[in-house]
Design a protein that fits this description.
256 residues; 39% strand; Apoptosis, Tumor Necrosis Factor Receptor Associated Protein 2, Chain A; alpha+beta; five-stranded antiparallel β-sheet; 15 strands; Potassium Channel Kv1.1, Chain A; 6 helices
Length: 256
């Protein structure tokens, strides 16, 4: 079972002209709650490292102690004089406790210049838009138990033949992921010829799908391969990156 949740957090940052601009100096928002977890937003007005000294960088960090990460898409945007929203950064990845997701918003001279439209009365408004996929813990536990066996190819019981090469795999995972492959496999099958896709593409499919890893797959070639081999929901779902970004096909780590 997968639940899709959305949260928008707007942070009003005052006294922009007095913010510290030393490299690595930061200001931090109040903690807020989203998706049953605590978060904070941080801003480096002078950049995190010397090579970013002229840029403004921001980060999103989960502060709740948990062993279960979230698959999150987040956007950083600034609000201009007219109240219009301007997106500067979009990311889509797995977020875990205390692991910050960082973004470069742009040059400080541009972002903090009142004439450019973002600093109003020495105040800027930074917005963080978040979308998360929350999944049942039982699925996560099952995936964590199976992943080491699959990655080590332990107990592999079928060989996929493709372009003269042999790739070990597990029938139960292939059959659970793909009705097409399930119909071509049997209890006594020891090998299966794959002719629909090339060897490099098949290797990529085996990496993203049976290994139960979360991955954003934006390649049209891989997307076509998934369909050719019959992989469909719940193994994949389309997670739209809104506001003009492209769609990604996501390989689920949770649930077979």
């Amino acid at each position: 079972m997968i639940n899709h949740h959305v949260h928008t957090q707007r942070w009003r940052i005052a006294n922009v002209s007095k913010l510290p601009t030393a490299i690595g100096a930061r200001v931090v928002s109040d903690q807020f709650e989203a998706f049953g977890r605590a978060w904070e937003i941080g801003l480096f007005p002078g950049g995190m490292k010397p090579e970013n000294k002229d840029s403004v960088q921001a980060y999103l960090r989960m502060t709740t102690e948990t062993a279960i990460p979230l698959l999150v898409k987040f956007e950083f945007a600034l609000i201009d004089h007219a109240g219009e929203r301007h997106t500067f950064f979009v990311d889509f990845s797995e977020v875990s406790t205390h692991k910050a997701k960082c973004a470069t918003l742009g040059l400080r001279a541009t972002l903090f210049d009142a004439a450019k439209g973002f600093a109003v009365a020495d105040v800027i408004q930074l917005e963080c838009y978040m979308e998360a996929l929350l999944q049942l813990h039982s699925h996560r536990n099952l995936a964590k138990a199976l992943a080491p066996l699959v990655e080590s190819q332990q107990f592999a019981d079928v060989t996929l033949q493709c372009e003269g090469k042999q790739l070990p795999a597990h029938k139960v995972i292939l059959a659970a992921r793909s009705s097409t492959l399930a119909s071509r496999l049997s209890a006594t099958s020891s090998s299966l010829a794959i002719t629909e896709v090339s060897l490099p593409v098949l290797r990529a499919v085996l990496k993203y799908v049976p290994l139960l890893r979360i991955a954003a797959v934006c390649s049209s070639m891989l997307t076509k391969a998934f369909h050719l081999l019959g992989f469909c929901t719940p193994a994949f779902w389309r997670f739209p990156l809104s506001r003009g970004a492209h769609n990604c096909v996501i390989a689920s780590r949770d649930g077979l």
